[in-house]
């Protein structure tokens, strides 16, 4: 019984309270169906009143940046608010309802347009033009503009006002930023401008997004390997010039660098006002290594020239003076002049006396003097000495140029 009474009380109490729904508000506003009154014209009572549009832009993510296409695609969120002078209701009459949501086709909307936009991909994501300066790549900072303006409405009809200042939008964006990827978000700066055309003035809000590239990947993938190859090339000065290995080594290093240059071609745009520093870096290092390769070719050629003349000399000596000795020796041993030098040893084994030993001694002396002419200290090693001097001079030049150049690059990239 008591439960039943309570139930009744509840029903009575509830039915006594006024019930409203959002539809009541819409019915009151005559907005139950799509009404043209609200959607076709600018919502002002007096046409001389400009509509004030408060705008806020927040950057949610920097999705991709393309240096080649000079575009970047940010994920942005634009919030706009304006006063619709024809729509109002008294919340007290509708149980305190202060907000209703409507399909956007029901109402007038400002024709907001973004200058730089190439394509709107989804609701928030867009691709926009951004003129990039890759001079300092990969240590560059880029600023991209997002300029918001109206197409039809001049300042007489529509004023654009940013609702937050630069420090606030930067703060919002920092908080909302989901991923930063390759680019580190620096700041979002708001500026307003009124553009004058012949037929009126137009308000324009520019949001400038500044972002800094994280260079680590490029340093690891590109700058350091090139530097390592340069070090390898420098170290090749320690390899002896007499052998062909040095030439092969240098050619290999040069080929490795050219493969890296192909990667660079993929990254950088073909058009650029100023030569990117990284291109200078590559070209100069490549040129230095090419020069060092040519120097090695020259040095190898000079040394070859020397050893060729030495060999010729040696052969000459062999054929004239020494050959005679051998024939003489074999004459002593066997008594026959037709013996070749190969048969000398068996002759010696036959237990010949000290004459043979003396002859061997003479022969050794001859060889020693021949070896001394082959050695660099000898008079005939003119080209070798020249090659050595060239090597030292070039190495000093190379080290100095490389140090100066790297210092220059460091300063240029840093400032
Ligand atoms: C809605 O329409 C009725 C008549 O069709 C009109 O009397 C009333 O004023 C309108 N309400 C508004 C808010 O315009
Ligand atoms: C970006 O907007 C600012 C402010 O209006 C302007 O000074 C700058 O030149 C613009 N940059 C580009 C690349 O258009
Ligand atoms: C930006 O706006 C906030 C609040 O509106 C204010 O506290 C701050 O001083 C403003 N900053 C600048 C640089 O005007």
From TrEMBL:
InterPro entries in alphabetical order: LGIC_TM_5-HT3, Neur_chan_lig-bd, Neur_chan_lig-bd_sf, Neur_channel, Neuro-gated_channel_TM_sf, Neuro_actylchol_rec, Neurotrans-gated_channel_TM, Neurotransmitter_ion_chnl_CS
Transmembrane stretches, start-end: 216-239, 251-272, 278-302, 392-411
Cellular localisation: Postsynaptic cell membrane
GO molecular function per UniProt: extracellular ligand-gated monoatomic ion channel activity; transmembrane signaling receptor activity
Residue ranges occupied by any Neurotransmitter-gated ion-channel ligand-binding domain in the UniProt entry: 39-119, 123-215
Pfam families: Neur_chan_LBD, Neur_chan_memb
Domain of life, source organism: Eukaryota
Membrane topology: Multi-pass membrane protein
Reaction(s) this enzyme catalyzes, per UniProt: Ca(2+)(in) = Ca(2+)(out); K(+)(in) = K(+)(out); Na(+)(in) = Na(+)(out)
Organism field: Muraenolepis orangiensis
Signal peptide: 1-16
Location, primary (coarse class): membrane
Keywords tagged on the record: Cell membrane, Ion channel, Ion transport, Ligand-gated ion channel, Membrane, Postsynaptic cell membrane, Receptor, Signal, Synapse, Transmembrane, Transmembrane helix, Transport
Protein name per Swiss-Prot or TrEMBL: 5-hydroxytryptamine receptor 3A-like
Role this protein plays: Forms serotonin (5-hydroxytryptamine/5-HT3)-activated cation-selective channel complexes, which when activated cause fast, depolarizing responses in neurons.
């Amino acid at each position: 019984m008591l439960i039943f009474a309570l139930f009744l009380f509840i029903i009575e109490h509830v039915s006594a309270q006024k019930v409203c729904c959002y539809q009541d508000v819409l019915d009151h506003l005559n907005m139950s169906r799509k009404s043209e009154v609200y959607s076709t014209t600018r919502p002002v009572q007096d046409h001389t009143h400009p509509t004030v549009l408060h705008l806020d832009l927040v950057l949610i993510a920097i999705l991709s940046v393309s240096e080649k296409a000079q575009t970047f695609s940010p994920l942005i969120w634009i919030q706009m608010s304006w006063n619709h002078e024809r729509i109002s209701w008294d919340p007290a009459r509708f149980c305190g309802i202060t907000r209703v949501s409507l399909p956007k086709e029901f109402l007038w909307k400002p024709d907001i347009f973004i200058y730089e936009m190439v394509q709107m991909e989804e609701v928030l994501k867009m691709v926009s033009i951004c003129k990039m300066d890759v001079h300092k790549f990969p240590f560059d900072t880029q600023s991209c503009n997002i300029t918001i303006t109206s197409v039809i409405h001049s300042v007489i009809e529509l004023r654009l006002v940013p609702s937050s200042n630069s420090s606030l939008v930067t703060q919002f964006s920092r908080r909302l930023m989901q991923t930063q990827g390759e680019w580190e978000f620096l700041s979002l700066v708001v500026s307003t401008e009124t553009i004058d055309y012949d037929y009126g003035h137009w308000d324009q809000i520019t949001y400038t997004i500044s972002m800094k590239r994280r260079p680590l990947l490029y340093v690891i993938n590109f700058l350091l390997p090139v530097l390592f190859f340069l070090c390898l090339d420098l170290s090749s000065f320690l390899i002896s010039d007499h052998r062909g290995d040095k030439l092969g080594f240098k050619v290999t290093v040069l080929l490795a660098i050219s493969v890296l240059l192909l990667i660079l071609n993929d990254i950088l745009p073909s058009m650029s006002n100023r030569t990117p520093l990284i291109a200078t870096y590559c070209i100069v290092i490549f040129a230095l290594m090419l020069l060092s390769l040519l120097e090695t070719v020259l040095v190898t050629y000079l040394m070859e020239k020397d050893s060729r003349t030495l060999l010729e000399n040696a052969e000459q000596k062999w054929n004239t003076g020494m050959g005679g000795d051998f024939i003489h020796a074999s004459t002593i041993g066997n008594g026959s002049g037709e013996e070749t030098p190969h048969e000398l040893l068996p002759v010696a084994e036959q237990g010949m006396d000290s004459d043979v030993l003396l002859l061997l001694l003479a022969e050794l002396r001859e060889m020693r003097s021949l070896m001394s002419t082959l050695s660099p200290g000898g008079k005939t090693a003119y080209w070798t000495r020249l090659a050595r001097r060239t090597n030292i001079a070039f190495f000093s030049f190379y080290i100095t140029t490389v140090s100066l150049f790297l210092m220059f690059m460091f300063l240029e990239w840093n400032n």
